[in-house]
Design a protein that fits this description.
This protein starts with a strand and ends with a strand. The chain is of the alpha+beta class. The chain has a domain of about 200 residues. Strands 6, 7, 8, 9, 10, 11, 12, 13, 14 and 20 form a ten-stranded mixed beta sheet that branches. The chain has nine helices and 20 strands. The radius of gyration is 25 Å and the shape is globular. The longest helix is centred in the first third of the chain and has 23 residues.
Length: about 400
């Protein structure tokens, strides 16, 4: 047995507590039906070489043109069904928190992390991982992958005036552009508070209602927009990018190749932004801009599984340094998988959030052909990204 904060520390009980979702923080993305909890990858990973990635087959739909059945035309020999594959990657993270004995003795305050704080911390990290994956899959380029990004992105930020804000029909149009007649599959829209405030001001968010014990109908804080549940969380973030400008534009910065001075910006820093003029070059002018991304999904868009670790939580005690130090060490290993999109990045048994946010590490599920891949129809992937000014 180990002692933690003056109490017997039971690792199994502590771990079960941490694994309880959702959290009490505003980690709204992971606690509103976006995860489909599964219990299959832990066993599969142990069966495959390496134990960190899975190649899962996907059976394609039947297709082809039928033969005219007229008594004289031969029926064509059966065509093989196309099968696709999706590569799914696991990741692990670890964090420790510790305190010196003397700090508690001197202040009369115990600074060691509470179990609830640890749980909230890992929920926050999990949401950060999801946002990194979203950035990565919308950073894909070329061929079918670039077509997915184009069709599933609805950008109104370049419109004039209020037309650049998320408006009454933007969600419906974005859904139709991406999914066509499957547009009704989108259940949830995740947006920044600036965007939701704008919609509330236009009375475009319908708040769900309940009837209290006195029979009075009241609004809940949960709303819908175009029939989709609205989740407000500023973790979706503002996107600070750059736009083309002239030397006379207020706040304009001169683009330089290197060593920027006041009023200048380095070319590589402009291109590192999420949004910048595609043809920006040295000696051009740009001005900082602010845009917001809203994501709409089908419920359960991500598969999630806690894969477990050998030692999820433990106490490490150093009785010598500066009078004594106690560490609470925690670890997680899990898998988060976007629907019909493969992680193809290599070189790590646990990709960082930076790797997950890199578009070249992702591709649509495909047949794996080394010469000419056949990809799943992007219309089947129920996610949309809307870019607006508010």
């Amino acid at each position: 047995m180990e002692i933690y904060r003056g109490k017997i520390f039971n690792e199994q009980v502590f771990e079960r507590y941490l694994r309880t979702l959702p959290s009490t923080k505003e980690n709204s993305l992971i606690k509103n039906g976006l995860f489909t909890n599964v219990n299959k990858y832990k066993a599969k990973l142990s069966e495959q070489t390496g134990g960190y990635a899975i190649e899962e087959p996907i059976k394609g739909r039947l297709g082809g043109t039928p033969t005219n059945y007229d008594g004289s035309t031969d029926i064509e020999k059966g065509t093989e069904r196309i099968t696709f594959q999706q590569r799914k990657i696991a990741y692990g993270r670890a964090k420790a928190w510790g305190e010196y004995d003397f700090a508690a003795e001197l202040t009369g305050t115990n600074f060691m992390a509470e179990a609830q704080e640890v749980k909230d911390y890992w929920d926050e990290q999990r949401q950060g991982t999801v946002l990194s994956i979203l950035k990565g899959i919308f950073g894909m380029t070329g061929g079918a992958n670039g077509e997915f990004v184009s069709k599933h992105t609805y950008d109104i930020s370049e419109n004039e005036g209020t037309a650049a804000n998320l408006g009454a029909d933007a969600m419906n149009r974005a859904a139709q552009k991406a999914l066509g007649d499957h547009k009704a599959k989108l259940d949830i829209i995740f947006m920044h508070s600036v965007v939701s405030t704008n919609l509330e001001g236009l009375n475009l968010i319908d708040f769900l209602k309940y009837t209290d014990a006195n029979g009075i109908e009241r609004d809940l804080t949960i709303g819908t927009f175009n029939g989709r549940l609205v989740i407000v969380d500023d973790e979706v973030q503002e996107l600070n990018g750059y736009e083309e400008a002239t030397s006379g534009t207020t706040g304009a910065l001169l683009v330089v190749s290197s060593s920027p001075s006041d009023g200048e910006i380095k070319l590589s820093d402009v291109k590192a932004s999420d949004f910048y003029p595609a043809d920006v070059a040295a000696n051009d002018y740009v001005v900082a801009s602010k845009k917001y991304v809203s994501y709409a999904f089908q419920k359960g868009f991500f598969e999630y599984e806690d894969l477990g670790v050998e030692k999820a939580s433990e106490i490490v005690r150093d009785a010598y340094t500066k009078g004594g130090f106690t560490d609470l060490v925690t670890r997680v290993r899990e898998i988060i998988v976007p629907y019909l999109i493969s992680y193809k990045g290599t070189g790590s048994v646990s990709p960082t959030n930076t790797a997950l946010a890199t578009g070249s590490n992702w591709e649509l599920a495909n047949d794996g052909d080394a010469v000419s891949k056949t990809y799943v129809d992007n219309k089947l992937i129920p996610i949309v990204r809307i870019i607006s000014r508010g």
